[in-house]
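Thought: the user wants the 3D structure for the chain below. I'll pass the sequence to the structure tool as-is, report back what it returns, then summarize two notable features.
Action: structure_tool
Action Input:
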Amino acid sequence: MKHLKLRRAIIATTQRMNELGINQGTAGNVSARAGNGILLTPSGVPYEALRPADLIEMDFDGGWECNVAERYPSSEWRFHLDVLRARPEFGALVHVHPIHATALACQRRGIPSFHYMVAAAGGNSIRCAPYATFGTVKLSRNALKALEGRSACLLANHGVIACGEDLASALALAVEVETLAAQYAQALQTGRPKILPEAEMKRVLIKFKAGYGYGSTPREAPKAAGSRAARPLMRRRPRNVSRSRRR
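Observation:
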């Protein structure tokens, strides 16, 4: 069986997204780039029952195979394949149906820049793709459009797509999108949230691209304490205090 380690990581991701509460039951699906195609979760198999052999291996022309009989690709295979084919910077895609983000999607609402962390998805908003029937070419096209310049989007009356370099980053982004959706929905209950201006979001995006986000080490981060670069950050004693008082 090829890509055994990746198969196990996909299964762990599906189970983790349900544990985190951003998905329920067999809803949602996960894929990851593998060789000249993708590995994808099968349709209708409970995540706790998934085994490495159950995963579907697809090529970018849509051909597929599985090591287990009676296993078929997820009903959403099309946008998994199309997104990972069109966006080579992505190594994985997580599709979930979280409560708050899906509620916004059912209102055909995206998430504007009410909070700077919206930039985690790559832009000054998280768009909501127009509605289309699940599993269709139209849904895939709508998702690709909503993902232009972004790594996440909502799907109207459906759920969330989150992409990343790997499974961990895609899952982390899915969690962040649901957190932002919950915060935005709560803010709407108390009035009209103040939206950060485009100029501020550009500054935030620059900082994110420099490495500030998801625990990565920023390129301009201060060096460890004791290094020459860190000394200006250390507290200095006032010059006008006598030596005796310093004691």
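Final Answer: Structure generated. Residues 4-189 form a domain with the L-fuculose-1-phosphate Aldolase fold (CATH 3.40.225.10). The chain has seven helices and eight strands.
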